[in-house]
Specification:
There is one protein chain. It is built from 4 helices and no strands. The protein is mainly alpha-helical. Helix 1 (about 10-25) runs antiparallel to helix 2, helix 1 (about 10-25) runs antiparallel to helix 4 and helix 3 (about 60-85) runs antiparallel to helix 4.
Length: about 120
């Protein structure tokens, strides 16, 4: 039986983003292992993890709280992507692809948050 969160399109897109961040940061300089790599991976994983935790909660208000945390992590990741581009760790095409995936996830997340607020 499929878990409830796996039915959510926002989870699917957030999971995809987290995987892409893990793959792209594999090519970053080793000096960034405990710096930018760690920060990017942490914020990327926080998005689907908070969607899962929120969905498992009983109330819409709690779910919304965890979705807000996920959104904060997504915004944090936005900066890390810009910094990675500026430092030359990713190229313009990689940046555009990752930023596009981040925006897809953010749009779905925002839609779900609005939906929860409207039915509360």
């Amino acid at each position: 039986m499929e878990k409830g969160y796996k039915k959510l399109k926002v989870f699917e897109e957030a999971h995809k983003l987290a995987k892409e961040i893990y793959l792209i940061t594999n090519k970053f300089p080793k000096i960034e292992t405990f710096g930018l790599i760690s920060q990017m991976r942490r914020s990327a994983v926080s998005v689907p993890a908070n969607i899962i935790e929120g969905q498992a909660r009983k109330g819409k208000k709690e779910f919304g709280h965890f979705l807000s945390i996920a959104n904060g992590s997504l915004v944090e990741l936005e900066y890390y992507l810009e910094l990675s581009l500026d430092l030359g760790y990713i190229n313009e095409n990689e940046y555009k692809n990752l930023e596009n995936q981040r925006m897809i996830t953010g749009s779905l997340l925002g839609g779900l948050l609005r939906h929860l607020r409207n039915i509360s």
